[in-house]
Amino acid sequence: MEKSSNRFLSIQTYMELLQEAQNKTQHKYVKDFITSYNFVVLPITENIGHRASIYIEEYSIPSGLRAGDAIIAATAVENNLTLISSNIKHFKSIKDLKFKGFKP
Protein backbone atom coordinates (compact mmCIF):
# COMPACT_ATOMS: atom_id res chain seq x y z
CA MET A 1 0.00 0.00 0.00
CA GLU A 2 1.38 3.39 -0.96
CA LYS A 3 1.72 5.99 1.78
CA SER A 4 -0.37 9.11 1.32
CA SER A 5 -1.60 12.00 3.40
CA ASN A 6 -5.10 11.65 1.91
CA ARG A 7 -6.45 8.71 3.90
CA PHE A 8 -9.39 9.14 6.24
CA LEU A 9 -11.14 6.81 8.61
CA SER A 10 -14.36 7.26 10.54
CA ILE A 11 -13.95 6.94 14.30
CA GLN A 12 -16.66 4.26 13.98
CA THR A 13 -14.44 2.22 11.63
CA TYR A 14 -11.46 2.70 13.93
CA MET A 15 -13.45 1.42 16.91
CA GLU A 16 -14.71 -1.56 14.89
CA LEU A 17 -11.14 -2.48 13.93
CA LEU A 18 -10.03 -2.31 17.56
CA GLN A 19 -13.10 -4.26 18.69
CA GLU A 20 -12.17 -7.18 16.42
CA ALA A 21 -8.66 -7.45 17.89
CA GLN A 22 -8.13 -10.58 19.96
CA ASN A 23 -5.41 -9.14 22.22
CA LYS A 24 -3.27 -6.08 22.98
CA THR A 25 -0.74 -7.07 20.30
CA GLN A 26 -3.46 -6.86 17.67
CA HIS A 27 -4.62 -3.51 19.11
CA LYS A 28 -1.07 -2.24 18.66
CA TYR A 29 -0.95 -3.60 15.10
CA VAL A 30 -4.15 -1.70 14.19
CA LYS A 31 -2.90 1.51 15.79
CA ASP A 32 0.52 1.21 14.12
CA PHE A 33 -1.11 0.59 10.72
CA ILE A 34 -3.34 3.65 11.07
CA THR A 35 -0.36 5.79 12.07
CA SER A 36 2.13 4.46 9.51
CA TYR A 37 -0.23 5.08 6.58
CA ASN A 38 -1.17 8.56 7.79
CA PHE A 39 -4.87 7.92 8.31
CA VAL A 40 -6.77 10.83 9.82
CA VAL A 41 -9.49 9.57 12.16
CA LEU A 42 -12.61 11.69 11.67
CA PRO A 43 -14.84 12.34 14.70
CA ILE A 44 -18.60 12.01 14.92
CA THR A 45 -20.10 15.49 14.67
CA GLU A 46 -23.64 16.66 15.26
CA ASN A 47 -24.24 16.76 11.49
CA ILE A 48 -22.90 13.22 11.07
CA GLY A 49 -25.20 11.98 13.84
CA HIS A 50 -28.20 13.69 12.28
CA ARG A 51 -27.44 12.37 8.79
CA ALA A 52 -26.84 8.85 10.15
CA SER A 53 -30.27 8.86 11.85
CA ILE A 54 -31.88 9.86 8.54
CA TYR A 55 -30.04 7.01 6.80
CA ILE A 56 -31.36 4.54 9.39
CA GLU A 57 -34.92 5.73 8.82
CA GLU A 58 -34.55 5.49 5.04
CA TYR A 59 -32.32 2.44 4.51
CA SER A 60 -32.45 0.08 7.50
CA ILE A 61 -35.51 -1.82 6.32
CA PRO A 62 -34.78 -2.15 2.59
CA SER A 63 -31.01 -2.76 2.78
CA GLY A 64 -30.33 -3.84 6.37
CA LEU A 65 -28.24 -0.76 7.13
CA ARG A 66 -27.13 -0.77 10.78
CA ALA A 67 -26.18 2.18 13.01
CA GLY A 68 -22.41 1.73 12.67
CA ASP A 69 -22.57 1.66 8.88
CA ALA A 70 -24.90 4.66 8.87
CA ILE A 71 -22.31 6.61 10.89
CA ILE A 72 -19.54 5.54 8.50
CA ALA A 73 -21.59 6.58 5.44
CA ALA A 74 -22.61 9.88 7.03
CA THR A 75 -18.97 10.61 7.89
CA ALA A 76 -17.99 10.14 4.25
CA VAL A 77 -20.83 12.32 2.95
CA GLU A 78 -20.30 15.11 5.50
CA ASN A 79 -16.58 15.22 4.64
CA ASN A 80 -17.17 14.95 0.86
CA LEU A 81 -15.21 11.71 0.64
CA THR A 82 -15.63 8.52 -1.36
CA LEU A 83 -16.36 5.50 0.84
CA ILE A 84 -14.46 2.38 -0.20
CA SER A 85 -15.81 -0.85 1.28
CA SER A 86 -16.53 -4.48 0.50
CA ASN A 87 -19.90 -4.04 2.26
CA ILE A 88 -21.71 -3.37 -1.01
CA LYS A 89 -25.15 -4.49 0.23
CA HIS A 90 -25.45 -1.82 2.92
CA PHE A 91 -23.83 1.12 1.15
CA LYS A 92 -24.75 0.93 -2.55
CA SER A 93 -28.32 2.23 -2.11
CA ILE A 94 -27.42 5.44 -0.23
CA LYS A 95 -28.15 8.07 -2.84
CA ASP A 96 -25.89 10.93 -1.74
CA LEU A 97 -22.91 8.69 -0.90
CA LYS A 98 -19.94 8.48 -3.25
CA PHE A 99 -19.23 4.77 -2.98
CA LYS A 100 -16.69 2.41 -4.47
CA GLY A 101 -17.23 -1.26 -3.68
CA PHE A 102 -14.73 -4.05 -3.99
CA LYS A 103 -14.59 -7.79 -3.41
CA PRO A 104 -11.78 -8.93 -1.07
Characterise the protein shown here.
The chain has 104 residues and is of the alpha/beta class. The chain has one domain (7-93): 5'-nuclease (Rossmann fold, 3-Layer(aba) Sandwich), CATH 3.40.50. It has five helices and four strands; from the N terminus they run βααβααβαβ. The chain has helices spanning 11-20, 24-36, 46-63, 67-78, 88-91, and strands at 7-10, 39-42, 82-85, 98-101. Strands 1-2 form a two-stranded parallel ribbon. The chain has a two-stranded parallel sheet with strand order 3-4. Strand 3 (82-85), helix 5 (88-91) and strand 4 form a beta-alpha-beta unit. Helix 3 packs across helix 4. The longest helix is centred in the middle third of the chain and has 18 residues, at 46-63. The model has no long low-confidence stretch (mean pLDDT 94).
The level of helicity is 40-55%
- CATH architecture grouping: 3-Layer(aba) Sandwich
What CATH calls the topology is Rossmann fold
Name the structural class: alpha/beta
Low-confidence stretches: none
What is the CATH homologous superfamily assignment?
5'-nuclease
Total separate domains:
1
Mean pLDDT across every amino acid position: 94
Overall strand count: 4
- State the shape: globular
Biggest β-sheet: strands ordered side by side in the sheet: 1-2
N-to-C SSE string, H for helix and E for strand: EHHEHHEHE
Q: How would a crystallographer describe the biggest sheet?
A: 2 strands, parallel
Query: Oligomerization state of this entry?
Result: single chain
> CA-to-CA gap between the ends?
15 Å
Q: How much of the sequence is in beta strands?
A: 15-25%
Could you name the CATH class?
Alpha Beta
Rg estimate, integer Å: 14 Å
Total number of helical segments? 5
